[in-house]
Structures are given as structure tokens and as C-alpha cells.
Amino acid sequence: MAHTRPSLREHGLSDQQWRVLRVLGEHASEPDGIETGRIAREAYLLGPSLTGVLSRMERNGLIERQRCAHDARRTVVRATVAGLSKAQSLSQTIEAHYVWMEQQLGKAQLGALYDLLDKVIALGVPEADGVHKDNSGEAAMSDDKNSEE
Question: Which pLDDT score, from 0 to 100, does residue 128 have?
Fold first, then answer.
């Protein structure tokens, strides 16, 4: 993010707001909008954090929120024209940065980096009780050589 954060700041966005706009931009063709739970998962944000992020984005005219037509307990979100415009502009800037990174590192090294990052993400997060959870919230088995077989 240190590489892309200056571009985000030029557009008046936080890292979290960018992640939300990116998700909404990817699903802009869905006419009913995207449920907040899906946004949280795809943008890697916790629900309580997402609530504040969405409030600021709505206040700034980047998104619209409304109750789900099928389930009034749920909220759906859509990017506004201004939000989609920012997402498209930033996507081009960030894509240009990825091209630059590939030129600097080479395709093989960048691919290896992405593979390793995917593995780190798949590890999940250690819980306070010492049990590791994968990204679905399920307990994950350790590959530790000291574990019993």
C-alpha cells in the first residue's frame, strides 16, 4: 500500500475506502447492489469498520445505501457515478504501478511473490486460544513438524 497510498490520498480516499470502491466497481453491473457482508469479505474489512467507512463514503457522495428488496434486514450498496469514476481512474493508476513492478522484478519473481502472499492469506489468523482459523473461520490444521500424526 505504501506504493499506492499517495494516489489514494490525491483522490481523497483511505485504503479501506479504495478497497470498497474496488469491490463495488468489480460488481457495478449488478443492478440490485452488493450486500454489506459481501463487501466486507471481498474488501477484507470487519463489519464494524465497514459501517464507518460506508458512512463517510455516503457523506462524500461515493456510494448509495438502501435496504435489500428481498430482505429488509440487509443493506445493499452501490457506487455512485462519482464513486465509479474514482474507481476507474485509480484502477488505471494502480494497474500502471503493477506494470512497473513487473518491469522491475520480472514476471517470474512477481508471480512468486503473489503465490507466497496467497499462501500467507490462506494461513488465516491465529486466535487468542492458539487455534488458527482459516479465512472461512474454520479451525485449520498445522503442518508443524512437532505436531502428532
Answer: 62
What are the residue ranges of helices labelled H in the chain?
Answer: 5-10, 15-26, 36-43, 47-59, 81-105, 107-123
Helical (H) or strand (E) element with 35: strand 34-35
Distance CA(3)–CA(32), nearest Å, equals: 34
Residue showing cell 512497473: 100
pLDDT exceeds 70 at position 15: yes
Per DSSP, 125 falls in state E
What are the backbone dihedrals phi and psi of residue 34, each rounded to the nearest 5 degrees, phi first? -120, 135
91: nearest Cα among 23, 14, 2, 139: 23
For residue range 88-138, list pLDDT tens digits in order: 888 888 888 889 989 999 999 989 988 998 899 888 777 765 555 555 554
Dihedral sign computed on CA atoms, order 131, 132, 136, 137: positive
- Predicted confidence band at 140 (pLDDT cuts at 50, 70, 90)? very low
Distance CA 107, CA 7 (A): 24
* Rounded Cα distance, 132 and 141, in Å: 8
Task: Specify the pTM.
Answer: 0.72
* CA dihedral for 21, 78, 69, 29, sign (positive or negative): negative
